[in-house]
Amino acid sequence: MLAGLTAFVVPAWAHRLDEYLQATVIDVSRQEIDVVLRLTPGVDVASQVLRQIDANGDGKLSAHEQQQYAHHTVSQVSLMLDHTYLSLKLRDYVFPSVEELRAGSGTINLHLGVQAILEPGKHQLRYNNQGAGPDTVYLVNVLLPHDAAVHIQSQKRSFNQAVYDMDFSVDQ
Q1: pLDDT tens-digit profile of 42-99?
Q2: Closest CA to 130 of 160, 107, 104, 103
Q3: Strand residues in 87-160 grouped as ranges (E)
C-alpha cells in the first residue's frame, strides 16, 4: 500500500504552468543581508517573460539584455531595515537558456545584497516585491541565521507573499 501512495507524490519544485514564480530567500547576519531571487516562468507565461528580456527580438538573450532585465527586476524589490530603505545591489545573476525558459524549466537566479551593520537590540525587516504582473506568484523565506547572535522573533507575510515582515534581535 505504501508503494501505491508514493506513486502520487508531486516533486517539491513543481509550479503551475500559467504563473511566474518569484521565490525569495533572505539571509541576515550582523554584517550584511543577502537576498536570492529565483524567477521561474511557467511554460504558459514564458514567451511573455522572454519578450520582456529579449529587447531586440532576435530570440537570444545577450549579456546586455540579461543585465538590463536583472536590474529592472531589482528595481521592483525593496528592503527596509528599521523603517529605513536599504539600497540593494545586484551582486550576480545567472540566466538559463532560452529553450529552458520556453519549456518552463529554466530559472533566473539573482543574488542581491546590502551591507548592514546591525547593532545589538531589536530590529524589523520588510521585503516588498512589486513583481512582474498579474501572473506573478511569490514565495518568501528566511534562512535560519548562521550568525548565532541573530534571533528571529516573528515573521508575517501578506496573503500573496509579495510583502514579508520579520522581527528579529541581535545579541551583544
Answers
A1: 999 999 999 999 999 999 999 999 999 999 999 999 999 999 999 999 999 999 999 9
A2: 160
A3: 89-94, 108-115, 121-129, 136-142, 150-157
Residue 16 burial (CB < 10 Å; 0-12/13-18/19+)? middle
CA dist., res. 144 & res. 117, Å (int): 18
Q: Dig out the grid coordinates for 121 from the structure.
A: 537590540
DSSP 145: P
Evaluate whether 109 touches 140 at the Cβ level (below 8 Å): no
- The pair phi, psi for residue 133, each rounded to 5°, is 140, -170
Report whether 143 contacts 26 (CB < 8 A). yes
pTM (predicted TM-score): 0.86
d(CA 118, CA 116): 6
